[in-house]
Design a protein that fits this description.
heterodimer; A: mainly beta; six-stranded mixed sheet; four-stranded antiparallel sheet; B: mainly beta; seven-stranded mixed sheet; 0% helix; 56% strand; globular
Chain lengths: 114, 114
């Protein structure tokens, strides 16, 4: 079955430190890949997406993600975290053979230490 | 940018009531979705609609129905609310095309059933 795994439920980093959030997917072919962020009490905002081509994609708010086919991973990174980045982050995959389905991971909550 | 508006941010209802959650999008998108979000479970798809008056069940449709009489509006209906339907509900809209079109989310409705 198709699935998305975010192995870290919580991550705490200090402000200014680098960040990497992990995402692994299980799917027969390369799906479309997304990262969303959810601030407290808000809906989900799209950070970035990967469809094909360059495996390093840039998103909003200084985030980037790298697609690694051999590891079925799509990890999110940021070189220097700001206090306003504290939120919950969701990885999602959309199978290439479906117009509708979007499968979400269970999310990683990021806490930022001053 | 796509604007997805959910009519209520917070809603409190009683067991057995019929509850309507409303969602409106302003970008003429064909596809609209209803999810519920629970801690540790990520987002789970309840129903989606790919055109006016067309609907498909998602992964957890039991206890819910939907209505799409106009392209811009997608309503989620709890026919007889129960306490286990207390949750955050998120509406999303997506343009035509395969999975490479991202879904755009509203701010959510936090529903409490007493």
């Amino acid at each position: 079955a198709q699935s998305v795994t975010q192995p870290d439920i919580h991550i705490t980093v200090s402000e200014g430190a680098s960040l990497e959030l992990r995402c692994n997917y299980s799917y027969g072919a390369t799906p479309y890949l997304f990262w969303y962020v959810q601030s407290p009490g808000q809906g989900l905002q799209l950070l970035l997406k990967y469809f094909s081509g360059d495996t390093l994609v840039q998103g909003i708010k200084g985030f980037e993600a790298e697609f690694k086919r051999s590891q079925s991973s799509f990890n999110l990174r940021k070189p220097s975290v700001h206090w306003s980045d504290a939120a919950e982050y969701f990885c999602a995959v959309a199978p290439m053979d479906s117009s509708y389905k979007l499968i979400f991971g269970s999310g990683t909550r990021l806490l930022v230490r001053p | 940018d796509v604007k997805v508006t959910q009519s209520s941010r917070y809603l409190v209802k009683r067991t057995g009531e019929k509850v309507f959650l409303e969602c409106v999008q302003d970008m003429d998108h064909e596809n609209m979705f209803w999810y519920r979000q629970d801690p540790g479970l990520g987002l789970r798809l309840i129903y989606f609609s790919y055109d006016v008056k067309m609907k498909e069940k998602g992964d957890i449709p039991e206890g819910y129905s939907v209505s799409r009489e106009k392209k811009e509006r997608f309503s989620l209906i709890l026919e007889s609310a129960s306490t286990n339907q207390t949750s955050m509900y998120l509406c999303a809209a997506k343009g035509e095309g395969m999975g490479n079109q991202p879904q755009h989310f509203g701010d959510g409705t936090r529903l409490s059933i007493l």
